[in-house]
């Protein structure tokens, strides 16, 4: 199980209700789950992705720990350009 973070911006209230049922809202639009399983993370992202595709408003960013990825982090986005973590001589950067 890994730390999972979802950040929302300019989305409908339904996202907040759903995300607070499975994660902690540590700041407006910022949700954290310290030990979310990959299966639960995938299901949560499937639900919010479905809403985003049907409503087409706002943006979401999902970040989770993945030991196989650069910097041990993965990023998924909706409503924003895709982002990728790159290692530039030992410094982690976000490539858009």
From TrEMBL:
<dbReference type="InterPro" id="IPR010152">
    <property type="entry name" value="CRISPR-assoc_prot_Cas2_sub"/>
</dbReference>
<protein>
    <submittedName>
        <fullName>Type I-E CRISPR-associated endoribonuclease Cas2</fullName>
    </submittedName>
</protein>
<dbReference type="Pfam" id="PF09707">
    <property type="entry name" value="Cas_Cas2CT1978"/>
</dbReference>
């Amino acid at each position: 199980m890994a730390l999972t973070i979802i950040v929302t911006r300019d989305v409908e209230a339904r996202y907040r209700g759903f995300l607070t049922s499975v994660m902690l809202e540590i700041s407006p639009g910022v949700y954290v789950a310290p030990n979310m399983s990959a299966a639960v993370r995938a299901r949560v992202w499937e639900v919010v992705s479905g809403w985003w595709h049907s409503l087409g408003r706002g943006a979401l960013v999902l970040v989770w720990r993945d030991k196989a990825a650069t910097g041990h982090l993965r990023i998924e986005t909706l409503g924003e350009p895709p982002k990728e973590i790159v290692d530039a001589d030992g410094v982690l950067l976000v490539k858009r």
